[in-house]
UniProtKB/TrEMBL annotation:
Gene3D superfamilies: Mitochondrial carrier domain
Organism: Euphydryas editha (Edith's checkerspot)
Record PROSITE patterns: SOLCAR
Compartment(s) of residence: Mitochondrion inner membrane
GO cellular component terms, A-Z: mitochondrial inner membrane
Protein name listed in UniProt: Calcium-binding mitochondrial carrier protein SCaMC-2
Topology term for the membrane: Multi-pass membrane protein
Family: Belongs to the mitochondrial carrier (TC 2.A.29) family.
Solcar repeat placement: 51-134, 144-229, 241-329
Protein keywords: Membrane, Mitochondrion, Mitochondrion inner membrane, Repeat, Transmembrane, Transmembrane helix, Transport
Length: 335
């Protein structure tokens, strides 16, 4: 994506740096905790004035829709493992899903997962730009510091998540639904509302918002640290680092953010899936944490993380290729 590298990171702006940033953006979207929580892109003043920013967002939306659709079975498998307290492995869980809903059932919940891309991206971009303006104040020409980007990104993520969160709950319920339970998204929303009320569409909201802080913070901090070490080592010698090193830098920051925030994502999904809690404590974040640790141990907080890691390679590869072709068709460059 056409980023203002000097503003974002103070980097050199060479092809390898561009590739690292684009790769990391793709990786952050699919090595995720349920939704895109990475800090939004910074667009150049030229892109904002000429309107190219919306083309980048559109290209990203197309890439995200194709990639999410291709890897939807792994995402649904992850959700099933997250909410299943028994120690079933991936193969048994996958067989059970196919037996219950057939091959096409593996894509349950994907429709709303694709639909929510547009409002989520637009809200996050708009909020991010507004928060950046508030932080910069009179220093419009000064680049944001790392902590300022984190604050702006986390705030934008919290705002966009607050608005589209009911779609997240619907996505989880549709992914877990049995054959014939709902006739589409609207029918599911009506039945869930009639049965549980409006409050149910914000189940798991607190752990979801709390997950933004470790994910975005660790991701950004580790990435910037690796970037600075790379610049100090290679820039003075006019050397180009190997491609594997660049991929490792881009992967490390997202992976660490994922590992640290995944327990919150699991608790969020468990709460989203609960139709009615038998006890008040069971419907709370603390109660869910306690129940998972008591019944499944600490490793239970990472149930479903394996298919989440498995889907990364195909998801990033598909997204990268589709984004490149989509951006070319829309008349913007990828880097």
């Amino acid at each position: 994506m056409s980023l203002e590298l000097e503003e974002v990171t103070g980097a050199t702006g060479d092809v390898f740096e561009d590739f690292l940033i684009v790769f990391r953006r793709c990786l952050a979207k699919y090595l995720d905790i349920g939704e895109d929580m990475n800090v939004p892109d910074d667009f150049t003043p030229t892109e904002l004035q000429t309107g190219k920013w919306w083309r980048h967002l559109l290209a990203g939306g197309i890439a995200g829709a194709v990639s999410r659709t291709c890897t939807a079975p792994l995402d649904r498998l992850k959700v099933f493992l997250q909410v299943n307290p028994t120690r079933e492995n991936m193969i048994k869980c996958l067989v059970k899903m196919i037996n219950e809903g057939g091959i096409s059932g593996l894509w349950r919940g994907n429709g709303i997962n694709v639909i929510k891309i547009a409002p989520e991206s637009a809200l996050k971009f708009a909020a991010y730009e507004q928060v950046k303006r508030l932080i910069k104040g009179e220093k419009n020409n000064q680049p944001l510091e790392i902590y300022e980007r984190f604050v702006a990104g986390a705030t934008a993520g919290a705002i966009s998540q607050t608005v589209i969160y009911p779609l997240e709950v619907l996505k989880t319920r549709l992914a877990l639904r049995k054959t014939g339970q709902y006739n589409g998204i609207l029918d599911a929303a009506k039945k869930i509302y009639a049965r549980e009320g409006l409050k149910c569409f914000y189940k798991g909201y607190i752990p979801n918002i709390l997950g933004i802080v470790p994910y975005a913070g660790i991701d950004l901090a580790v990435y910037e640290t690796l970037k600075k070490k790379y610049i100090n080592k290679y820039q003075s010698h006019n050397e180009q680092p190997g491609m594997l090193l660049l991929l490792a830098c881009g992967s490390a920051s997202c992976t660490l953010g994922q590992v640290c925030s995944y327990p919150l994502a699991l608790v969020r999904t468990r709460l989203q899936a609960q139709e009615k809690a038998a006890k008040v404590a069971e419907g709370t974040m603390r109660g869910a944490f306690r129940e998972i640790v008591q019944r499944e141990g600490l490793l239970g907080l990472y149930r479903g993380i394996t298919p989440n890691f498995i889907k990364v390679i195909p998801a990033v590869s598909i997204s990268y290729v589709v984004y490149e072709y989509a951006s070319r068709s829309l008349g913007v460059n990828m880097t």
